[in-house]
Amino acid sequence: MFGDTWRFTAICGDLLRLLSEVIPYKPFYPTPAFFPFMKDKMLIDAEGYKYLFKGNDLHTKDGFISKDAIIKAKAGAKLKTNKDVELTLLDAAFLDKYWKIQRNAQIIPLKDLGFIAAEIGLANDWTIVEAGAGSGGATVFFAHLCSHGQLYTYEIRDDYIKIVQGNLTFLGLKNVTLKKQSIYDGIEEKNVDLVLLDLPEPWLAVDHALAVLVFGGYLVSYSPCIPQVMDFVDKVRNTPGFLYLKTAVIGETEWDVVGRKVRPKSQSIGHSGFLTFVRKI
């Protein structure tokens, strides 16, 4: 018996040596799913185009750069494509990766998200309840800013929940709880600092928000149409305990500056939605 085992082992050894001669060795580079830090590298060209490294050869509008060169390079390194165009390797910041999230439903633009954060004085340890997650643009933005807090998002559609979960995983955010529930039926959390609504009928969640917000906490509604704003504000003004603050629209106009030639860009971000701010008193 031992003789048969020895002969079998010897045959296996010969086969392995033969395979090593026939099949050339190729180094193994883990994918982003195996090595999450790989998606934290990006390259940027002289025009500002950004390319997030995903663990494979990087193909750009000006040629490609091999994954070997990217993996070996450090932040600040200048790498050239096969067409001799130079790109700079950087460590990808949150917003660099934010632009690569998966989308289906329209997300609240950054100009509006930034205004919300500034207007309410957002702190990094807040408890936030969000309803109408959609593709999760607001979800990941506020979860990133509230790194020591917790965000709960209410969403009724399975396809949106799947997209948001994928975006959270992609960005490495772990302080979010996804709930397949309608906020119109109530809010389970307590001592909430901010309730953010991106809903067709936000007025139906006003009473639930009042019940869970801390005194001084904020209720913010994002609505694309003015009739929604009218009905929401009417409900707020008839709800004791809430103080209506304001409704605002944020515009953004980018400018071209080339020497002495200065003019607004032809395409600018115009109306996206109405932001209504309410506070519990």
Instruction: Write the element-wise H/E pattern from the N-terminal end onward.
Output: HEEEEHEEHHEHEHEEHEHEEEE
Mean pLDDT: 87
The global form is globular
Strand content: 25-35%
How far is the N terminus from the C terminus? 86 Å
Would you report the number of β strands?
A: 15
Structure description:
The structure is a single chain. The protein is an alpha/beta fold and 281 residues long. Helices cover 30% and strands 27% of the residues. The protein is built from 8 helices and 15 strands. It has helices spanning 2-22, 67-72, 94-98, 110-120, 137-145, 158-171, 206-212, 226-237, and strands at residues 41-44, 50-52, 58-60, 63-65, 78-80, 86-91, 127-131, 150-154, 176-179, 192-197, 213-223, 242-248, 255-258, 261-264, 274-280. The strands form 4 sheets. The chain has a 7-stranded mixed sheet with strand order 9-8-7-10-11-15-12, with helices on both faces. The chain has a 4-stranded antiparallel sheet with strand order 2-1-6-5, with no helix packed on it. Helix 5 links the parallel strand 7 and strand 8. The longest helix is centred in the N-terminal third of the chain and has 21 residues, at 2-22. The model is unreliable at 22-37 (pLDDT under 50).
